[in-house]
Amino acid sequence: MTLLAGRWSFSFPMAKLSDGMRVDILTIFPEIIKAVAGESILKRAQEKGALRLGVHDIRDFATDKHRSADDYPYGGGAGMVMKPDPVFECAESVMADEPANRPHIILATPQGRLLDQDVVRELAQRDWLLIICGRYEGVDERIREHLVDDEISIGDYILTGGELPALAILDAVTRLQPEVLGAEESAVEESFSEDGLLEYPHYTRPAEYRGWPVPETLLSGHHAEIARWRRRQSLKRTLERRPDLLERARLSPEDQRTLAELKEEHDAGN
User: Fold this and answer.
1) What's the average pLDDT block by block, 10 residues per block, for the chain (270 residues)?
2) What is the residue extent of each domain of the chain?
3) If residue 152 lies in a helix (H) or strand (E), which one and from where to where?
4) What are phi and psi of 56, to 5 degrees?
5) Is residue 174 helix, strand or coil?
6) Which one-letter DSSP state was computed for residue 116?
7) How far are the Cα atoms of 54, 65, 162 from residue 62, in angstroms, in the given order?
8) 70 contacts 25 by C-beta, under 8 angstroms
9) 199 vs 29, 85, 187, 245, 259, CA distance in Å?
10) What is the dihedral of CA 100, 146, 5, 136, to 10 degrees?
11) Which CATH superfamily is domain 208-269 in?
12) Is 129 helix (H, G, I), strand (E, B) or coil?
């Protein structure tokens, strides 16, 4: 707990701004963020200094005795709208401890641009992100117009608040920070990685389970054959599940030939 502008705000231990990526999350439910951020890779990233995470309760910046962060919408209508003053004051309080820098401010909202791996890579290059978690029917439009730099959606569906999208953004950008993933956790060969294809299937011990064997190629020890098998499976899975990704994937002439074969096989089987 740290005292910011006369109000208490939870934050994980932070190093100097020059060390690791900084992310601050503004929410009315800080325990949701803290519960997830205190486990697994996010926890390790903070321990290594690769991630400096602050979680701040917007209600701490409300001015009434009920700590209200929302109110009825002007013009009528169902639901409540998050008020601008506690959100602005919370954000400004966070930014005040690094006045020479400004974070890239994100509003987690279904109206934003869709989060994909290209967006993740873009955000991961930033030194400092500040993510605002909306609630209720949304936020006062003045927050969008005068505070927010970016709006991010994690899909075309409605959630109860911005905490889960904020955690998705946090997890995705953190795992791309240097030294966050161990040798057993590769950020290179995985779905939506550098070439834009879905990842190939994975197998581990036992070599046979309930009569279902691991493909023989993977047991052969022939690295070139294994690489070809994996590439073919990646192309096959993308063709079957996300053919839209092939339009912008980086494909070699050999990949194009393999895709033509896979399409012929698919057409022959139908």
Assistant:
1) 38 51 98 97 96 98 92 90 96 96 96 95 97 93 97 94 97 95 59 75 94 95 96 96 93 97 90
2) 2-174, 208-269
3) strand 150-153
4) -125, 130
5) helix
6) -
7) 19, 8, 19
8) no
9) 35, 45, 11, 12, 15
10) -140
11) tRNA(m1g37)methyltransferase, domain 2 (1.10.1270.20)
12) strand
Q: How many CA atoms lie within 13 A of 184 on its CB side?
A: 1
Interatomic CA distance for residues 40 and 33, integer angstroms: 13
Contacts of 90 (CB under 8 A, 6+ apart): 9, 26, 56, 57, 58, 60, 61
* Strands 208-209 vs 212-213: parallel, antiparallel or unpaired: antiparallel
Q: Model pTM greater than 0.85? A: no
Half-sphere exposure of 115 (CA within 13 A, CB side): 25
Tokens 């005795």 belong to 65
- What does the block give as tokens for 40? 């697994």
DSSP 80-115: -EE-HHHHHHHHHHHHTTSTT---EEEEEEEEEEEP
Q: Give the C-alpha distances (Å, rounded to integers) separating 164 from 35, 42, 44, 108, 109.
A: 12, 14, 20, 9, 11
CATH number of the 2-174 domain: 3.40.1280.10
Three-state DSSP class for residue 170: helix
Question: Which pair of tokens denotes residue 211?
Answer: 């009569």
List Cβ neighbours of 203 (8 Å cut-off, separation of 6 or more).
214, 215, 218
Residue in the structure block whose two tokens are 């800080």: 30
CB atoms within 10 A of CB 151: 17
Decide if 2-174 and 208-269 have a common fold.
no
SS3 217: helix
CB atoms within 10 A of CB 49: 16
